[in-house]
Amino acid sequence: MNDSDKQQFEQQAILQLLDEFEAPPVSLDFNRRLWQTLEAAPPPSFFGLAKTWLKPAIPLAVLTALVVAGFAFDHHPASPGVTTLDADRMERTLDDIQLLGQFETNQEGVPAV
Amino acid sequence: MGSAPAIDFDAQLMLRVREGDESCFHTLLDRHRNSLVHFLYRMVQDAGAAEDLAQEVFLRIYRSRTKYEASAKFTTWMFRIATHTALNWLRDEKHTRRQTDLEAQREVADRHPSTEQRLVNGVRVAEIRTAIRNLPEKQRAAVLMHKYEGMDYAQISGALECSESAVKSLLFRAYESLRAQLAHLIRGDI
Fold it and tell me: What distance in Å separates the CA atoms of residue B148 and residue B39, rounded to the nearest whole number?
């Protein structure tokens, strides 16, 4: 028998020898004792359970918030500033009003024929 | 085409326990009670303590049900908790002292053997127990999981939180040590 065979034989023998180390049977009241302890323990808190249930939703909520924020930032309404075009139009309108006013004044000042 | 890894039956049961199905915890308890108590018995070599520690392990499993995620085999997770629990117990000074007392009593008993202890088989088993007890704690846990629970290297490495190569090394050294201690039994000296 060479060294390798001898080692293999001894390993098998050790494994067989370990089979002889048996554990005693478990007590019949093992389950009952465990349930007694479990029933005596306080139930998990509502916040603990809620945290567990909500935990998987947190990344989704963060992602949704980022998407909404990005959308809002990209599509914000135009600021209510006054453009050059509006100012020109307003100026012309005021000029027209002034001209009409002068025209009406002149008409009132014209003596009837 | 890849598919999601299958969740083992025990992990499925545990996920149902997480959802509040207590009957599944009964099933898990019935499936693993004996192997867990036997593992702990061989680790601490005290029947009463082994049952107390097994109760503690199941309590921890039940209490952490809401945080359970089926990332590993259920038994790997269970034996990880069991190993931690046993190692803490063994490292506790009080228990070391108690174990030393038990050993002293056993030595006295060996000097005055009872009829039962005189039986050859009894002597052999006592020697095997001693050889296992003499192993360093991690080697002992690795051997017990490998030999009695039929766990593979990956599962043992998960339970002991070390690499597979570290497990192979632990097992090699443990079996070498057992072979040296029990060589006379292999040769049939008794």
Answer: 8
Query: Cβ of B41 and A23 within 8 Å?
Result: yes
- Compute the distance between CA of residue B15 and CA of residue B51 in angstroms, rounded to an integer: 25
Token pair, residue B26, equals 């009964």
Domains of chain B with bracketed CATH:
9-187 (1.10.1740.10)
pLDDT in tens, B87-138: 999 988 655 655 555 554 554 445 455 565 556 778 889 999 999 999 999 9
Contact A26 B37 (CB under 8 A): yes
Asked whether the beta carbons of residue A44 and residue B66 sit closer than 8 angstroms, the reply is: yes
Scanning every residue of chain A, which has its alpha carbon at the shortest distance from the alpha carbon of B45?
Answer: A23
A16 interfacial to chain B (CB closer than 8 Å): no
Is the complex ipTM more than 0.90?
A: no
Secondary structure, 3-state, A22-68:
CCCCCCCCHHHHHHHHHHHCCCCCHHHHHHHHHHHHHHHHHHHHHHH
> Using CA atoms, how far apart are residues B38 and B48, in angstroms rounded to an integer?
11
Contact B37 A21 (CB under 8 A): no
